[in-house]
Amino acid sequence: MTSIPQEIIDLIAPHLNQHDLADCSRVSHDWSSLFAPWLWRTVHITNESTHDRFNSPESRAALIRNKHFVREVTATDQNLLLLLSAHDHSDPSLLKLTDLRALTLRFHTDAPWSLTVGTPPPSPAQEEGGAEEEEEAMTRTRAGAIATIAELVEVDNFRTVLELLSINTNLRTLRLGKGCLRGAGRSDLLPHIMEACPTTFLTTLEICFNDVQNESRAKHNVITNTTHLEDYQTFQLETRRYQDQEPLLTLKQLIFLEHRTNCDDFSRLAVLARCSHLVRLEFGSIDCRIADLLALGDGTGSLLRTLCPCLTELALRGVILLRDARLAALLRSSKLGWRVLELDELVRFSHNAYAVIVECVSTTLEVLRINRWRGLYPAWCSHLLSTTTQGQFRRLEGVSNGKVDAITKEFTVHAQNTYEDHRVEMARQKNQGQRTDIWSWIALGPSMEYLQLAIEGVPRPDVVCWRSGEPLPIQSMSHCHRYKAQKWIYRQLASMSGLQELILGKPDLNMSCISFRGLDASMSSIEIEDALSPGFATYQYDCLEFSLESGLDILSGLKELRVLDVKSTAHRIGVAELEWMRIHWPKLKAIEGLVSRREWAGALEDGEAVRDAVEAWIDKHPNGIGSSFLCNNK
């Protein structure tokens, strides 16, 4: 094994977990030297203390002895920093930690160092003891010698972070939480940290926004009445602290973790003055003063455009309380045009912001991810899908699983209304002698890879009752209307020849947000539906069927489709449809929400027979549905 080149080991080691790597390292000294670089490559301590992970002098000595192999560090315990920065003055040949690529520190408190780093030198009383006591003392000393600091000095997070940064010039990712930006009575440590931060390869910087304040500043709970021009002048004063520092030319992503509302501390935001090549900006939370500062600057133009002319990606996390006009101004702050917009919860979303998003979709936007829409008119959804693009739009994403609550509003299209509007427009164009074979949802072209969309309002006269057995109101629509509306929707979806994931199902509920209604996770889906209806829908009945009768064959061109999500919908996918999908969607791996008893169809025995047949078919195709996956013919 020792004759195998390290390059071969480097191909094997990534496929082994930490336990396997540790076993290999214990086989022999030769194996230990081969696998040590991979065993110590990452040190992550997040849900435990450093003392629990390295609970003996020997384990701490091993960490310090091998710390030069460490490339990624994640810690929520200050004591890990002490171990990584510790030196053994009795053995200067030991290498320091100088080749970190990713450092993530999120300390919850400012507690002093609590870990004893090694074994203290023997006391005079021990030295006067017999030979046996002396040998035992020497053994303990040797076991902890590598982990011993000659003199115990007072250390704070700040000094330790500075030391690590100054010697790790290959650092790519730096994430700093609250605790590591405080120490020794300093009120604002970020400029000092940024001065020590390596600039050669750093691509991602994450910092806690507005962690501490000067005592002279207003309390963070007090809303101040300053103008955006005064805020701009304050910001300019803060940027002077960075004017002598080198620009972060390689930095592409800057993340501000959190922000206290309406606080006049712009010291953290001032780091933007060094980020002229920034591509992505992310806020854990943003208020109106920060938005005004970035969008308006001194009133003559967008400050964000001036400081970060390469910016093309914006992510706003949490509840976005910005008023419509203010949000629209911020969304106009990209000089090159946004390629990615990620907006968590739009509370005051209205016409102005919507118009800017439509403009982005028609020009540069590739990814639009909005977790929750508020103030979104149903007609806007169809209009957005009908926007002419440059062929660049790739992903439309909505609410995540487990995030749905009583106020969640998804990106929704009403099938029947949209179809009728299309018919009216076609008749108008025909009367004017114009083309009538136009494609309505122009935004959904071959470039689309991911589409998350709620399609409701499909005429479904075959759905006669709720899943609980209670009858539904009688639907006046005929089966003719049922199929016409669905085929029109299929034709709009059929143009997405590059589509990989089609998400049309209902996302999972956030049980913690609706637990006040007496619900819990142990309840069945039908019990939850009964408890929440009629005001809160957990199951969709007026949806696409995905049956061959409804026009499924129109979607035969979706050759790249990997995932179809029809969870909690009244679909009619049976064995015949699965066989069709296997032929026409060769890369289809899974269908979320496939198995259904079809209680809503009224004939429970027929529904159970379909379910059993589908389950038997899936058993024969355990690897995937499409023809590119091998089936089990046993």
From TrEMBL:
<feature type="region of interest" description="Disordered">
    <location>
        <begin position="114"/>
        <end position="136"/>
    </location>
</feature>
<feature type="domain" description="F-box">
    <location>
        <begin position="1"/>
        <end position="43"/>
    </location>
</feature>
<dbReference type="Pfam" id="PF12937">
    <property type="entry name" value="F-box-like"/>
</dbReference>
<dbReference type="InterPro" id="IPR001810">
    <property type="entry name" value="F-box_dom"/>
</dbReference>
<dbReference type="InterPro" id="IPR032675">
    <property type="entry name" value="LRR_dom_sf"/>
</dbReference>
<dbReference type="InterPro" id="IPR036047">
    <property type="entry name" value="F-box-like_dom_sf"/>
</dbReference>
<protein>
    <recommendedName>
        <fullName>F-box domain-containing protein</fullName>
    </recommendedName>
</protein>
